[in-house]
Each structure stands twice: as structure tokens, then as C-alpha cells.
Amino acid sequence: IPVVMAGVLGIYGLIVAVIIQGSITVPSASGATKYSSFTGYAHLSAGLCCGLSGLAAGMAIGIVGDAGVRAVGQQEKLFVGMILILIFAEALGLYGLIVALILSQQSFQCADAA
User: How many angstroms separate the CA atoms of 1 and 10, rounded?
Assistant: First the structure.
């Protein structure tokens, strides 16, 4: 179960990467770009937000999963508690995904210099 939950965190990063990649614009033939620094930093912060929250959630899932599997081997009643803690750890990554989606929608279009 912890392995599957950790795999979902990678899917969160993939979702954010595809959304960010879809909003990047190609410069025109004259070299002018409409992709502003504001939009670039918004996309950077979205990626960092999703990545760092996924890192924290992955650490929590790894620690709880390791200790939980060992504890369930000795006392089967702890299974439900372990699953609840794993769900709360997964929620950390989900919160990062939500904030990253909000940040990735922030943009500013540069005006033409001509």
C-alpha cells in the first residue's frame, strides 16, 4: 500500500509538468517573446511547490509505511491506524498539487515591442 501511495505522488508531478508545458509559448520570428519573467517564476514556484510537498509526503509515507508494516506484522489491529496515517501523509502531496495548479494559472503576457 505505501508503494502505491508513493507512486501517486509522482503522478502529481507529471500533471503539473504537463500543465506548465502547455502554457509555455514559443518566441516569434523576430525574437520577441510573450512568456514573461512573472510567468516563468510562477511556473517555477508551481514546480517547486509540487516537488517539495511530494518530497515531504514521500518521506512521511516511507517512514510510516516502514514502521507500520513492521507493527502490523506483530499486531494486526494497527492496520487501520496505519492506513489513516498514510492517507494524511498523502494529503500533504495533494495540498501541494492544489497550490501548484493555482500558481501555474498565474500569467502575464508581454506586449509587442514594435
Answer: 15
pTM of the model as a whole: 0.83
C-alpha cell at position 15: 500533471
Q: For the chain, what's the residue count?
A: 114
Cell digits of residue 98? 492544489
CB 91, CB 16: distance < 8 Å: no
Query: Quick one: which of 58, 62, 40 has its CA closest to 50?
Result: 58
**Quick count: other Cβ atoms within 10 Å of Cβ 47?**
17
Q: Tell me, what's the pLDDT at 26?
A: 82
Q: With a cut of 50, which residues of the chain have pLDDT below it?
A: none
Rounded Cα–Cα distance for residues 87 and 82 (Å): 9
